[in-house]
Structures are given as structure tokens and as C-alpha cells.
Amino acid sequence: MIKLAPSILSADFAKLLEEVKKVENAGCEYLHIDVMDGHFVPNITLGPAIVKSLRKDVNMVFDAHLMIENPDRYIKEFADAGCDLIVVHQEACRHLHRTIQNIKAHNVKAGVALNPATPIDTIKHVLQDIDMVLIMTVNPGFGGQSFIESMIPKIEELKELIDSKNLNVDIQVDGGIKPENVYKVVKAGANVIVAGSAIFNSNDISETVKLFRKNASL
Ligand code: DX5
Ligand code: ZN
């Protein structure tokens, strides 16, 4: 069974709660919250205050994807705001093991994201300490980009590594995922599927969510 994680980056921010309620009512399990600082990526989005406001009215798993430099500075704030899972980028952490421990010390699940060019090897020695790996299937920064095909063997390599170590680590994919290509990433080993534009820009969100699930289980 896959889990669907709509990315709020493609939602209408002026009606954020209304938009989030649509994906919650459509049965999506995770809310993927893209946090950007204008340094690690060339875009700026939102911070813990917005997460805290949404938390009051939403029961989905809050999955914070921190695309920010030096994420340690903000882990406590995102945990206190109600995030269930905090994902940091390998490329943004000088002491990744310490950062992971910092996330877990706040009783929050920990994930590590890898940019398309970053090898799986860079997280091999922390795999047993985390709950999820996020394989970026676009370069982070914007919604609506095209899926990078060469990430399929990367997902397969990660799946093999996780299985060889007998670990229970989720594989999340993020960027350019649509009902048309979801089967490919699931077959390669992904089980948490982020989709921004494909969900929020669709005419009928609940039909699109159904189509994602149907195609994922082909
Ligand atoms: C990109 C973000 C993604 C983005 C995905 O930097 O991390 O979560 O919103 O959007 P789509 O699904 O439109 O590629
Ligand atoms: Zn994301």
C-alpha cells in the first residue's frame, strides 16, 4: 500500500486550509509541507507559524520537507508546530547524524532527502537511524517540473540497500510524479508518493487521488 503526500506548494495559499481539507477528505495520508529559505533553493515558502495554524484543523501526518540551510536551527520550532516527520537535506547538513538525533529527540520521525546528483552512499551509515529517505526526482525549488528518469535506478538501488540490511525505512519520491508515471516509481520501490501540481491543479482532486492509487497498484 502506498501513501499519498500532496505537496501544498501547488495549493492556492490564499485558501490554504480549504485546499488542505480537500486532500484530507480525498483520503490522502500525508501533508507534504515544502519549506524553502531562498538560500538552499532559489524560492521562499512558509514557516512554522503556518504549520501551527493548519495543525488545529487537520489530522493528516504532517511531513515537513526542509529545503533550508542549517536546518538544526529550526527543528524545535517545526516539531513544536506539530510536524510528525521532519525531512532534512543531506546536502544541507554538515553533521547529518547529529541532526537526525536532534529531530528524534523531539519525538518526531526523521527523514533525509537526496538531491538528484547526491549518491545513496552518502546516507548508508545513517540508514538504520531514520524512518524515511526522500529521493528527489526533480531539483528542489519549484513545483511543476519534469520527472528525471535516471532516478529510477537510484530508487531501485536504495530499495536493495534497505532490504539487504533488513530495515523498515520508507522511500518517498518527490517531483514530477503523476498518475501516468506513478507505477514506475512504485515498482522501483517507492511507497510514499509526493504530488503537487498533479493533485492541486486537477479539476477533481478526489478522482485524481483514486487514479493515483489505481495506477500505483497495476
Ligand atoms: C520541489 C518540492 C516538491 C514539489 C513537487 O522542490 O519539493 O514537493 O512541490 O511538485 P510537483 O509534484 O508539481 O513536481
Ligand atoms: Zn517536497
From TrEMBL:
Keywords: Carbohydrate metabolism, Cobalt, Isomerase, Manganese, Metal-binding, Zinc. Substrate binds at S7, H65, G141, F142, G143, G144, D174, G175, G176, G196, S197. Pathway: Carbohydrate degradation. Its cofactor is Fe(2+); Mn(2+); a divalent metal cation; Co(2+). SUPFAM superfamilies: Ribulose-phoshate binding barrel (SSF51366). Binds 1 divalent metal cation per subunit. It comes from Romboutsia maritimum. GO terms for cellular component: cytoplasm. Its EC number is 5.1.3.1. PANTHER family: RIBULOSE-5-PHOSPHATE-3-EPIMERASE. The lineage of its organism: Bacteria, Bacillati, Bacillota, Clostridia, Peptostreptococcales. NCBIfam families: PRK05581.1-4, rpe. It comes from the Bacteria. It catalyses: D-ribulose 5-phosphate = D-xylulose 5-phosphate. The active site is at D34 (proton acceptor), D174 (proton donor). This is Ribulose-phosphate 3-epimerase. InterPro entries: Aldolase_TIM (IPR013785), Ribul_P_3_epim (IPR026019), Ribul_P_3_epim-like (IPR000056), RibuloseP-bd_barrel (IPR011060). One of its GO terms (biological process) is pentose catabolic process.
